Amino acid sequence: MATKLRLEIHRITLQKKVNGKKGVIWENCNFSELLQHFDKDKTKAFPLLWTRYVEYFQNEFQLNKDGDRAITATTECQHTFDSKKNVLNGEVNGGPTNREQRIYKRKNSKKSTGAVADDDVVTSKFFIKFWLPVDYSTGALMIQSYTNSNISELVRLHFTKFVQSKGFRLVPTSYFPKAFIEERNKRSNVVSVSYVKDNLSKDCRKLINPLFADFDSLKVKIVVTGFRKTVSEFWNVFSNNGKPLNTDIEALELKADDDNKVIAVYEDEEGHQTKMNYDQERLRNFAYYVLPEEIMISGKNTYDFEKISKHTNSILETMQKEIGYRKDK
């Protein structure tokens, strides 16, 4: 399968410390307060924010908690500002690390042309977009990734720490526009459903296999495959009686009346899969948005910076409408 570009979208809420009746509390505030930390003139504040963000990396790569992925931003990374729209487009470099690798030409597997040491980072460029509205406490962080390479969590956590270093708190939550969900659901089928059970008793763990008896965090997943139903057909029948499980599975302590964790896998007409979590009457979306091939550089498995900037502007406009944002005049 050819490399696809993905986009994760996060709503980000800015908060500041205020004195409440019972002491200091965190309260939502407009992004103007963060931007004024850099300059009162927002046309200058956005460039300064990017400069300080780059400096926050201290000319080094920042690692994830497992130490196997790293990101950085430098003055050479592309970036643009649109202060009228409160938007900053940029990019970071990132990829895997902490693993020794050999380098070969595809047509010669006998002769190595080099090596990647465990302290090297094999990087790709990743597009990021910030919407920081001066008149609103909710903004957006968009992070592009590849089919086989994702540094989204690391970008989100590092930007959150950057905001914290300025005395604020950032609360990110995954977001996927309803309009995109509806359109994707029309073109998708449910191809798999899983029942996940944790907090198993010791007797149950022992019944599965004595080897697991002493592992308190053991989880069991029952995966059902071999079917294909449209999204609407699946949920109309699957949850018709309000229960995702119609019978008890006593050996695994799965009971029909419990609030069981159920995960369905959606697959669209191009084979892209999305996991959806069903908890009784609510669907929570864990999806990413697949970016169109038109925003890619011809012949290369990466994005055109100008094209992806424009395309994500349209996604941002959809998000703004859905959250009820109205720009102050």
Characterise the protein shown here:
The protein has 329 residues and is α+β, with helices and mostly antiparallel strands. The protein folds into two domains: 207 residues, no CATH class; 105 residues, no CATH class. Helix content is 22%, strand content 36%. The protein is built from seven helices and 18 strands. The strands form three sheets. Strands 1, 2, 3, 4, 5, 6, 9, 10, 11 and 18 form a ten-stranded antiparallel sheet that branches. Strands 12, 13, 14, 15, 16 and 17 form a six-stranded antiparallel sheet that branches. The N and C termini lie far apart (47 Å). About 2% of the residues have low confidence.
Distance, first to last CA: 47 Å
Shape: globular
Query: What is the number of E strands?
Result: 18
Largest sheet geometry: 10 strands, antiparallel
Topology diagram in text:
Layout: E1 5-20, E2 23-28, H1 32-35, H2 42-55, E3 62-63, E4 69-72, E5 79-82, E6 87-96, E7 101-105, E8 108-116, E9 124-131, E10 138-146, H3 152-164, E11 169-175, H4 178-186, E12 188-197, H5 202-208, E13 220-224, E14 229-230, H6 231-238, E15 261-268, E16 273-279, E17 282-285, E18 289-290, H7 305-322
Antiparallel strand pairs: 1-2, 1-10, 1-11, 1-18, 3-4, 4-6, 5-6, 6-9, 7-8, 9-10, 12-13, 12-14, 12-15, 15-16, 16-17
